[in-house]
Structure formats: C-alpha cells, structure tokens
Amino acid sequence: xxxxxxxxxxxxxxxxxxxxxxxxxxxxxxxxxxxxxxxxxxxxxxxxxxxxxxxxxxxxxxxxxxxxxxxxxxxxx
Length: 77
Prior knowledge:
This protein is of the alpha+beta class. It is built from three helices and four strands; from the N terminus they run βαβαββα. A four-stranded mixed β-sheet has the order 2-1-3-4. Strand 1, helix 1 and strand 2 form a beta-alpha-beta unit. The chain is globular. The relative contact order is 0.28.
C-alpha cells in the first residue's frame, strides 16, 4: 500500500503525517508513507486544499486532519 501525505510542510501537514504513521503502526498495514511537497504535483491530482491523504492513488481526505482511528479505518478498507 502506498500512502501519500500531500502538503507544503506546514504544522498541519506534519501532524497528518505523524498520525498516518501511527495508524500504519496500529493496523500493522504493509504500507509506505511518503510526504509530497511539490504543489504542482498536488494540484495535478486535483487537490486544492491541503493537507490531503492519498491511499493507493485515491484522495481520501483533503483540508482536514483525521484522527488516528479515522485513518486506521481508511487503511482497513
């Protein structure tokens, strides 16, 4: 599973990355977490509000920071 946190690197983006890594550890998912900083690439994906969470190419959240439990539920889908 490929997980991407999209955002400029602000505190909200960093928090989403932290929570995502916690959710991966909690679920034991076989996943890599990558932070995408390039705004051009983010906009190409149709993401206009960050931070955004992308799982296997699909934007799951945008403009909010879900809880660790909410992210874990997305990983279990």
